[in-house]
Amino acid sequence: xxxxxxxxxxxxxxxxxxxxxxxxxxxxxxxxxxxxxxxxxxxxxxxxxxxxxxxxxxxxxxxxxxxxxxxxxxxxxxxxxxxxxxxxxxxxxxxxxxxxxxxxxxxxxxxxxxxxxxxxxxxxxxxxxxxxxxxxxxxxxxxxxxxxxxxxxxxxxxxxxxxxxxxxxxxxxxxxxxxxxxxxxxx
Length: 187
Hints:
The protein is an all-alpha fold. The protein has helices at 2-14, 18-40, 43-60, 70-88, 95-108, 121-132, 136-146, 152-159, 163-185. The longest helix is centred in the N-terminal third of the chain and has 23 residues, at 18-40.
């Protein structure tokens, strides 16, 4: 049902309906923001690139050839914007800002995250550090897969890589993160 609603809104937005585009934006905002935050590790830059992505995609939605490709199209715009920001970083942004963003998320959720069956703050920070140690393209691949829900074939199309290369890089990236996390916990 949600997919049909999304396709209807895309058609309306392509005809210039601002309200329809606003509803589309609401449907994808959190996925876009999570992707940008984990890629850039800076909440302010993440908000900026998401905002730029939304503006550019609104202006360019009439050029979208296949309505079904909206999500991969908007994530491709976002990924390109994230790449530009990453190239501008002279050095990695301080981890403190990233930790503050996760703390803010925790506070908005009503305090500490539940312990049993959920990841606690320290686990999130360890995960964020391991993720931050990946190469830029590996972070993009992992983010597109886990936050965007894209297949290796879709990611390959966005990044102009072969699907096998995407799967291989994702597997190596996840193994590297697993090794880093295992080392952090002494398992």
